[in-house]
């Protein structure tokens, strides 16, 4: 009986260790965002600076936020701050050159992508104001990804989504 009980305790301990090491999609997504730290080059010239640094990422707040700045060094430079949102979510606030601050949430990493959807924002009437409404980051590799941002106005998508592909500066 004692050996059987010891075996059960051992199996439960291994299960607990394995479960503790498994990351939720939100944890995995945030960890992936943190790997972006550094300078990134505009591959296609979407920001008018093809081949130059257009986006920077910085881990801040004691490792609890990721700050994205783009297009770097321009008069319309913007910032997006990513962070965890409870145990099972991610959130971002986009500080737009247009004066709006949309907030979006994500359930976390799904395959190799993070998708964020509008929840609310400041300086925004979602029924009329032009604002960023969704974002998707598709991680191609450790050194390349594609971002797609969709603007909304009058309660519906405003034109085609804005996509850009960037690679890590080496």
Fold and architecture overview:
The protein is of the alpha+beta class and 170 residues long. The protein has one domain (25-168): Lipocalin (Beta Barrel). The protein is built from 2 helices and 11 strands, in the order ααβββββββββββ. It has a 10-stranded antiparallel β-barrel. The N and C termini lie far apart (61 Å). Mean pLDDT is 89; it is low at 8-19.
Summarize, please.
By secondary structure, the protein is α+β, with helices and mostly antiparallel strands. Helices cover 18% and strands 46% of the residues.
The strand order across the widest sheet is 1-2-3-4-5-6-7-8-9-11
**In DSSP terms, counting alpha (H) and pi (I) runs of 4 or more, how many helices?**
2
* Poorly predicted tracts of residues: 8-19
Largest sheet: 10 strands, antiparallel, barrel
Instruction: Indicate the percent of residues in helices.
Output: 10-25%
List the helices and strands and how they pair.
Layout: H1 2-21, H2 25-34, E1 38-42, E2 53-60, E3 65-70, E4 78-84, E5 90-95, E6 101-106, E7 113-122, E8 131-141, E9 144-153, E10 156-157, E11 162-168
Antiparallel strand pairs: 1-2, 1-11, 2-3, 3-4, 4-5, 5-6, 6-7, 7-8, 8-9, 9-10, 9-11
Characteristic key phrases:
170 residues, alpha+beta, Lipocalin, 18% helix, globular
């Amino acid at each position: 009986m004692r050996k059987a009980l010891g075996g059960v305790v051992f199996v439960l301990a291994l299960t607990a260790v394995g479960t503790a090491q498994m990351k939720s999609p939100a944890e995995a997504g945030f960890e992936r965002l943190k790997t972006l730290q550094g300078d990134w080059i505009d591959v296609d010239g979407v920001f008018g600076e093809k081949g130059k640094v257009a986006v920077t990422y910085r881990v801040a707040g004691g490792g609890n936020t990721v700050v994205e700045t783009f297009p770097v060094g321009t008069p319309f430079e913007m910032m997006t701050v990513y962070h965890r949102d409870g145990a099972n979510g991610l959130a971002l606030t986009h500080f737009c050159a247009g004066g709006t601050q949309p907030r979006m949430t994500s359930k976390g990493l799904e395959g190799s992508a993070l998708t964020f959807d509008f929840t609310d924002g400041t300086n925004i009437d979602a029924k009329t104001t032009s604002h960023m409404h969704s974002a998707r980051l598709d991680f191609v590799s450790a050194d390349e990804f594609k971002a797609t941002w969709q603007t909304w106005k009058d309660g519906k998508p405003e034109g085609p989504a804005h996509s850009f592909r960037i690679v890590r500066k080496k």
